């Protein structure tokens, strides 16, 4: 069996996902084209060698609709033989793309894959694509499916996390991200966004708040109390009848940021890497998905990780670095607590709370961060894992070469 | 530069009056002028002292566009982009200041000048036929820069906004009113200011609807609404059909419009700025600006007009021959306030010529662009007659009879005797030599060629052809007359087929040569259109008629004598006429087949039977280069031989008269654009591969060696 190797990782900076955000004026196709062209130029890549382009996108309508992967391949002047597929595994879409890419290589049916994702949340707002889980009353009521923020608060309530604990986590995320940015840790994978005239539109992640403090974080109002009060709290408690109420402790400060961005990972077999003259950076050694309780929603990454570790015949102690998507502070704390992970190995350069979570692209951004950081620290193994809508979880384990 | 005062009602008036300039423009220093004023106004608004502002001008015109020299000389994306941001912000501050702004448009407002008016909340214009309103940027390969695309598409919808922006039409105020570019017309200046004040007092809270709190884009402008998305795709296909991707400005306008519709106003206009910057830095824009601005202005300012003669302002002219061309000239002249004596062999025929003019005017009245009274006034200027004696009080006479030297000579004699001694006689001919025709004249110094193009109402070019004995004064007067018609005169020395016909001749013959080589006629036509030629060569040849092309060739033989070298393509025309009897469109059979109604149905079905297809078909780009290079090289030869004096005239002559790609800037600018060295090398290559006709003239080789461009 041929193994799947990560040959390179590339990503755009993330701009705030609102109309005043730096990337609001940049179309989703231009976000991903920046990444694809950047990847091509880095290696003078003969794109006819690429078997497939897999792109995650969670809101694939309008500017992101109609299979944006194939559109992006053509628009980026890639060879016409490159096919494209857009896929949606909710927040884990880009990681799913990477995993499927790795499977394609390991099956021996393909030799070179580009996997990644794109999301312009400022231009195609979350939820624009509808869907029965949230918007079909019959489905929604049957499952007691609630907004993710309320799920996060449910999780915090169940686990007894205090607001101070959540804010402390968020504060660390900010500090780590600022430190990483200032020291150029993100540089290896970062490709700035230029306009059609070569003028810089954005060259660094913009969401993070270097001046935030625990005091400032503590002052932010709960973000999901209103949704809870509308009835979603009751729906949550119907599944967790031992709870008296939901404590609404997640705020804009300790939840993931809404941003725009794109990322991609070049995955290939060893033979193809040699042929192209690209030195592999890491080997993808296992991947898994599974799903947990859907109302609580944000704990699927735990069973997914157990599954992936088992397949790789590894234990938690074998992992040097963890990238656990910071969808909400509680989701990370729960994961850390479950596996008893040292905070110094977990989200070492911040995450979606400080840097933002461009839904369909985040998986590939986390993979870029992980591979770059393994390299910088000269460590061996790392995990990317994410909780996802519907209770799903996804995990990928890589080993630096 | 800008004065400001506020009246007792709290209404401010800004008067634009740039020092040392005939017109106001929005140049790169505009921020220095506007920023302090806007700061002051905002302060006044905060203090509650300001109810509204009127912007008007002390010049005869309101405000012209931007500063092309600056934009093109900068060549730096960052600087151009910053300049656009400056303009954009000025307009936006006006738009969102919170008090009503009214543009009191006292005269022409074009480009950024009109954009200033558009940023205001209301536009009142003086009803003056001289006033022009519009956004002509696209005609120079650019686009508006201050947010006009976002503003017009939101207020008028995609289709109408795109029509205005992509054609760049400079409209008279009535049309501008009808199409929503202005809101009100008034008759005098006093009323202009009065109505402006009245509107301000009636509109205390002027906010553009897209700036209102709960504004959301209507479905007709929402690209995520399926019917809208489909209409966008269809409109885009139509654009490409028209531009063949040769006009980035038209595409950029559409892109910015659609992309901007997804976005908030500020982001939408920032997109416009980015596209604008890319256009300014593009070769196409440079080429079009050179042709339609710099070259055209050189011509208008009389670069080739003989110096030292007073300007003619014709009051009354004679037109002999009331056919399509004669009546067309009469129409144009009457439109420009000139009385026309329209003479033909009988009054009834002359009346028919006038009738054609009447029909044209009727159409204009029907489209509401002119009143019945105005059209009647124009029509009354045309006096049909059969009496040649009446030309005695004409400032000039244009003879437009059939292309026959003997007929023209007879008319010359008959006419001249009745003309007064200061008047000149012009012959409208496309191929007959002026010096030869002038032999019939007793005053050959007052005899000149004026080659109008068909359809005369549309084509802006006139070749002023100087015979051997034509005086400088007559050339100057003929030039002035053409300018009076607002057309573009280029001065040609009498020679074979003048200038533009020579260009078209080699173009068609090169296509014929390729046909003889077994190249596909369909590919040749397609290549020509993709190269930006207005007419593909075989359509053109069919329209002219192959016998006419051969007749011209005979004259070429005579003229060049021993120096004549037959171009290969001639043999094809001979075969088409002599053997195959495919003479062209008028016969219903040429390179194309035609149906009963005379419409083209496709390349002649039997083509391949007579001209077997070469299995080695050329690349489309090679075909394109062959078709363009022959024309460019012929233009250089015309300059070398003194047929045409300036590159400005050579460029515009080729564009207007031969349908050469304007985004290349004309047949000479094409060489600059290609690079003199590269062009010469490629020409030599083509000469080796295909025809001696591609051999670059010595003058060109020398220029390439010295690395100089055509000016």
Structure characterization notes:
The complex is a heterodimer of chains A (401) and B (711). With 401 residues, chain A is α+β, with helices and mostly antiparallel strands. Chain A is 38% helix and 18% strand. In chain A, α1 (28-43) packs across α2, α3 (93-106) packs across α14 and α6 crosses α12. Chain A is globular, with a radius of gyration of 20 Å. With 711 residues, chain B is α/β, with parallel strands linked by helices. In chain B, α1 (30-46) links the parallel β2 and β3 (52-57). In chain B, α20 (521-530) crosses α25 (620-640). Chain B is globular. Chains A and B meet through loops of A and α3 and α11 of B.
Radius of gyration of chain A: 20 Å
Structural category of chain B:
alpha/beta
For the record, what CATH class of the largest domain in chain B applies?
A: Alpha Beta
Count of distinct strands of chain A? 12
Helix content of chain A: 25-40%
| Global structural class of chain A | alpha+beta
Oligomer: heterodimer
User: What is the residue-mean pLDDT of chain A, rounded to a whole number?
Assistant: 97
The strand line-up of the biggest sheet of chain B is: 12-11-10-13-14-15-16-17
Termini gap of chain B: 34 Å
Overall 3D shape of chain A? globular
Biggest interface goes to: A-B, 13 and 18 residues
Largest sheet data of chain A = 10 strands, mixed
Query: Which outline of chain B best applies?
Result: globular
């Amino acid at each position: 069996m041929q193994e799947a190797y990560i040959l390179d990782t590339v990503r755009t900076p993330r701009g705030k996902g609102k109309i005043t955000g730096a990337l609001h004026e940049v179309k989703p196709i231009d976000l991903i084209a920046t990444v694809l062209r950047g990847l091509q130029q880095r290696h003078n890549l003969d794109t006819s060698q690429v078997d497939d382009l897999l792109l995650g996108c969670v809101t694939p309508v309008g500017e992101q609709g109609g299979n944006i992967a194939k559109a992006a391949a053509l628009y980026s002047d890639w060879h016409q033989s490159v096919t494209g597929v857009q896929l949606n595994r909710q927040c884990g879409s880009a990681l799913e793309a990477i995993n499927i890419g790795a499977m394609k290589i390991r099956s021996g049916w393909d030799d070179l894959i580009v996997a990644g994702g794109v999301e312009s949340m400022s231009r195609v707002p979350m939820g624009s694509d509808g869907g029965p889980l949230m918007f079909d009353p019959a489905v929604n009521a049957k499952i007691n499916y609630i907004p993710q923020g309320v799920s996060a608060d449910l999780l915090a309530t169940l686990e007894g996390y205090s607001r101070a604990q959540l804010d402390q986590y968020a504060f660390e995320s900010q500090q780590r991200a600022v430190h990483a940015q200032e020291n150029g840790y993100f540089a290896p994978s970062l490709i700035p966004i230029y306009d059609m005239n070569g003028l810089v539109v954005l060259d660094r992640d913009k969401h993070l708040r270097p001046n935030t403090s625990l005091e400032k974080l503590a002052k932010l109002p709960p973000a999901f109390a209103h949704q809870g009060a509308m009835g979603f709290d009751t729906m949550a408690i119907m599944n967790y009848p031992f709870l008296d109420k939901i404590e609404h402790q997640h705020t804009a400060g300790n939840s993931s940021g809404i941003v725009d961005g794109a990322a991609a990972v070049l995955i290939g077999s060893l033979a193809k890497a040699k042929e192209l003259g690209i030195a592999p950076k890491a080997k993808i050694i296992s991947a898994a998905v599974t799903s947990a309780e859907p109302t609580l929603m944000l704990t699927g990454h735990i069973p997914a990780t157990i599954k992936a570790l088992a397949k790789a015949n590894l234990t938690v102690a074998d992992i040097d670095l963890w990238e656990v998507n910071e969808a909400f502070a509680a989701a990370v704390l729960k994961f850390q607590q479950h596996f008893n992970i040292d905070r110094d190995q977990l989200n070492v350069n911040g995450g979606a709370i400080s840097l933002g979570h461009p839904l369909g692209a985040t998986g590939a951004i986390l993979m870029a961060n992980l591979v770059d950081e393994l390299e910088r620290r000269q460590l061996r193994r790392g995990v990317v894992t994410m909780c996802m809508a519907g209770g799903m979880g996804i995990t990928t384990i890589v080993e630096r070469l | 530069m800008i004065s400001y005062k506020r009246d007792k009602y709290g209404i401010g008036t800004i008067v634009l009056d740039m020092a040392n300039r005939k017109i106001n423009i929005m140049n790169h220093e505009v921020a220095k002028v506007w920023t302090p004023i806007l700061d002051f106004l905002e302060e006044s608004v905060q203090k509650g002292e300001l109810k509204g502002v009127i912007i008007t001008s002390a010049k005869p015109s309101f405000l012209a566009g931007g500063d092309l020299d600056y934009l093109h000389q900068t060549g730096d994306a960052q600087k151009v982009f910053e300049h656009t941001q400056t303009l954009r912000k000025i307009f936006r501050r006006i738009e969102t200041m919170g008090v009503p702004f009214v543009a009191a448009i006292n005269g022409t407002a074009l480009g950024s000048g009109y954009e200033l008016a558009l940023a205001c909340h209301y536009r009142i214009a003086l009803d003056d036929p001289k006033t022009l309103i519009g956004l002509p940027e696209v005609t120079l390969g650019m686009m508006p820069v201050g947010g006009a695309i976002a503003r017009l598409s939101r207020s008028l919808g995609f289709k109408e906004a795109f029509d205005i922006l992509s054609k760049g039409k400079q409209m008279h105020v009535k049309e501008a009113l009808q199409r929503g570019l202005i809101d009100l017309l008034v008759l005098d200046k006093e009323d202009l200011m009065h109505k402006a004040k009245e509107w301000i007092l009636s509109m205390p809270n002027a906010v553009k609807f897209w700036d209102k709190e709960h504004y959301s884009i209507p479905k007709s402008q929402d690209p995520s609404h399926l019917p809208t998305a489909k209409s966008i795709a269809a409109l885009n296909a139509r654009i490409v059909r028209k531009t063949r991707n040769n006009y980035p400005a038209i595409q950029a306008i559409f892109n910015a419009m659609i992309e901007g519709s997804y976005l908030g106003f500020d982001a939408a206009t920032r997109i416009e700025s980015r596209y604008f910057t890319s256009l300014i830095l593009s070769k196409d824009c440079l080429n079009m600006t050179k042709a339609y601005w710099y070259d055209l202005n050189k011509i208008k300012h009389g670069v080739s007009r003989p110096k030292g003669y007073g300007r003619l302002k014709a009051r009354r002219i004679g037109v002999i021959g009331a056919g399509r061309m004669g009546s067309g000239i009469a129409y144009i002249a009457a439109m420009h306030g000139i009385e026309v004596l329209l003479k033909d062999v009988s009054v009834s025929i002359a009346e028919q010529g006038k009738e054609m003019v009447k029909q044209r005017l009727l159409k204009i009245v029907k489209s509401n662009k002119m009143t019945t009274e105005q059209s009647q006034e124009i029509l009354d200027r045309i006096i049909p007659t059969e009496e040649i004696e009446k030309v005695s009080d004409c400032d000039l006479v244009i003879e437009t009879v059939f292309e026959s030297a003997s007929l023209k000579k007879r008319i010359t004699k008959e006419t001249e005797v009745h003309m007064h001694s200061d008047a000149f006689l012009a012959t409208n001919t496309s191929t007959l030599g002026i010096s030869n025709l002038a032999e019939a004249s007793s005053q050959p110094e007052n005899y000149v060629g004026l080659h109008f193009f068909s359809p005369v109402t549309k084509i802006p070019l006139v070749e002023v052809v100087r015979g051997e004995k034509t005086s400088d004064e007559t050339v100057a007067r003929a030039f002035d007359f053409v300018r009076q018609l607002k057309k573009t005169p280029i001065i040609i020395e009498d020679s074979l087929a003048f200038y533009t016909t020579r260009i078209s001749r080699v173009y068609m013959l090169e296509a014929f040569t390729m046909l003889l080589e077994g190249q596909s006629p369909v590919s040749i036509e397609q290549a020509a259109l993709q190269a930006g030629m207005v007419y593909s060569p075989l359509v053109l040849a069919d329209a002219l008629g192959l016998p006419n092309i051969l007749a011209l060739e005979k004259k070429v033989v005579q003229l060049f004598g021993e120096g004549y070298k037959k171009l290969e393509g001639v043999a094809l025309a001979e075969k088409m006429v002599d053997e195959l009897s495919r003479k062209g469109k008028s016969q219903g059979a040429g390179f194309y087949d035609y149906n009963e109604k005379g419409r083209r149905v496709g390349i002649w079905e039997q083509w391949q039977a007579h001209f077997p297809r070469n299995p080695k078909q050329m690349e489309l780009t090679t075909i394109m280069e062959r078709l363009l290079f022959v024309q460019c090289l012929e233009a250089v030869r015309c300059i070398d031989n003194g047929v045409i004096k300036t590159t400005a005239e050579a460029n515009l002559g080729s564009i207007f008269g031969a349908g050469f790609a304007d985004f290349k800037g004309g047949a000479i600018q094409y060489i600059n654009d290609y690079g003199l060295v590269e062009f010469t090398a490629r020409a030599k290559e083509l000469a080796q591969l295909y025809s001696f006709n591609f051999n670059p003239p010595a003058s060109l080789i020398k220029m390439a060696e010295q690395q100089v461009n055509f000016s």
